[in-house]
Specification:
The protein is α/β, with parallel strands linked by helices and about 425 residues long. It contains 19 helices and ten strands. The protein has helices at about 5-10, 30-40, 40-50, 110-120, 140-150, 165-175, 180-185, 205-220, 240-245, 260-275, 280-290, 295-310, 315-325, 340-350, 355, 365-380, 385-390, 395-410, 415-425; strands at about 15-20, 20-25, 55-60, 130, 160, 190-195, 225-230, 250-255, 275, 315. Strand 1 (about 15-20) and strand 2 form a beta hairpin. The two termini are about 45 Å apart. The model is unreliable at about 70-85 and about 330 (pLDDT under 50).
């Protein structure tokens, strides 16, 4: 079976029941049920019959495959009825390596810091705190460090876990009175990769236990790597002592990929999937999807499935233009009425229109006001003076200042661009 076909149709399925030679295989949607039934039944049957040395009947159903707790991809469906339970597992996703990691403007600083850790784990940057929006590659980078450390020092006890798993295990250890086991399990490690640490915020007991786990490891020179959707000081209801521990090493952020990086990612992912895509098609996708890397992968996946079903060998500009629906709105559908725009902005920032146009200089209000001013200028095409008037009788120079500020941010901070695109898409 061609790898691309396997990846698209088979890898997302999971064998969930195998009893009396009747196999039930879960597919995430009815499209996959149909196609697997029609085209690949023989493949499933042969594989299963070979494994079990009997003749099986196969039934496909629509059901989300069960995620394994450690964020790993589901194990091979054909092996899932005999689960292996090793006593210690790093829980690293096999694809999240440096080989598969593209370095560009948005992540080169984080990447360089990661290389420093690999040279000298526990010493160079400890803890190492990576933050950034959804799908920018925090988990991937963190696990790539894990993979590389294991490669260089196979004896190291490295473990990846989402902070949520830590919390859940702690609760069940408390219930079953196995706290000693729980403590040993985490404190014996040489390197912990803790994903989405913002999850523990506001949860008093989990924060307390994590604080002690962190100290036990950090004080003995063990490497701690953390990720979060924001920097430690911006995590709401995270205890001060944890904030200061998390900031005690190096804190880096990863931004959304810029245009060049998106092109590189599209090319790399297409190559991995065995998809032939022309440079113009890759550029077109990159221009029309100012988004995170997970979204890019999703879009590429849709395109490749479409190409496969239409038996198209090479994805070119024509094909993309016909099949690709950029997320941004077409100009005709944008309602640029100034009052409408102001109320949409207020809603977007979760504030009242009165406050948006009011006197307060609170930081959140000022940011929202600047963006609104920018959009009134660029989308509603109002003159500076009128924008000032609408935003609470402000002077035209302060509107000019707002415009320049957002203009500058647009070229330095991809998140501003995404924010503005989001607002425009709801107009
Ligand atoms: P985050 O943890 O920031 O939400 P992930 O690490 O889960 O994001 O990345 C989302 C997807 O994008 C993953 O499939 C990952 O492999 C891919 N990805 C992220 N960063 C890169 C990169 N620099 N190069 C290639 N693929 C990447
Ligand atoms: Mg992640």
């Amino acid at each position: 079976m061609a790898p691309a076909v396997y990846q698209t149709f088979v890898s997302k399925t999971q064998l969930i029941i195998l009893k009396d030679n009747q196999a039930t295989i879960a597919c995430p949607n009815s499209y996959l049920v149909d196609i697997n039934k029609k085209r690949y039944l023989e493949f499933f049957k042969n594989a299963l019959d070979n494994q079990t040395k009997t003749n099986n009947k196969i039934n496909f159903i629509v059901q989300q495959p069960i995620k394994s707790p450690s964020n790993q991809p589901p194990s091979s469906p054909l092996l899932s009825y005999t689960p292996l339970t090793p006593t210690f597992t790093p829980s690293l996703h096999p694809q999240y390596t440096f080989d598969n990691f593209i370095v560009g403007n948005s992540n080169n600083y984080a990447y360089a810091a990661a290389q420093g850790i690999i040279q000298n784990p526990g010493v160079t940057h400890n803890p190492f705190f990576i933050w950034g929006g959804v799908g920018v590659g925090k988990t991937h980078l963190m696990q790539a460090i894990g993979h590389q450390l294991l490669k260089d020092h196979s004896q190291l006890k490295i473990k990846y876990f989402p902070a949520e798993t830590f919390g859940n295990e702690l609760i069940s250890a408390l219930k079953s009175k196995r706290m000693n086991y729980f403590k040993r399990k985490y404190r014996q490690l040489d390197c912990i990769l803790v994903d989405d640490i913002q999850f523990i915020a506001g949860k008093e007991y989990i924060q307390e236990e994590f604080f002690h786990t962190f100290n036990a490891l950090h004080m003995t020179g063990k490497q701690v790597i953390l990720t979060s959707d924001r920097k430690p000081s911006h995590i709401d209801r995270l205890e001060d002592r944890l904030v200061s521990r998390f900031m005690g090493g190096l804190t880096v952020d990863i931004q959304l990929p810029d245009y060049e990086m998106r092109v590189a990612i599209i090319n790399q992912k297409a190559e991995k999937k065995g998809i032939n895509i022309t440079p113009e098609a890759a550029q077109y996708i990159s221009e029309n999807i100012p988004s995170n890397i997970r979204d890019i992968e999703g879009r590429l996946q849709e395109i490749s499935v479409l190409a496969l079903t239409q038996k198209i060998k090479q994805i070119d500009l024509d094909f993309i233009k016909n099949s690709f629906n950029p997320t941004s709105n077409t100009p005709q559908s944008i309602n640029t009425n100034p009052r409408h725009l102001i109320s949409i902005c207020a809603k977007h920032f979760g504030i009242k229109t009165g406050d948006l146009c009011g006197k307060s200089r609170k930081k959140e209000l000022v940011t929202a006001r600047h963006i609104t001013a920018y959009l009134l200028l660029t989308e509603s095409k109002l003159p500076l003076k009128q924008v000032g008037h609408l935003l609470g009788g402000r002077d035209h120079t302060s509107i000019m200042h707002a415009r320049d500020k957002i203009h500058h941010q647009l070229s330095t901070n991809p998140q501003t661009k995404q924010l503005i695109n989001q607002i425009i898409s709801t107009l």
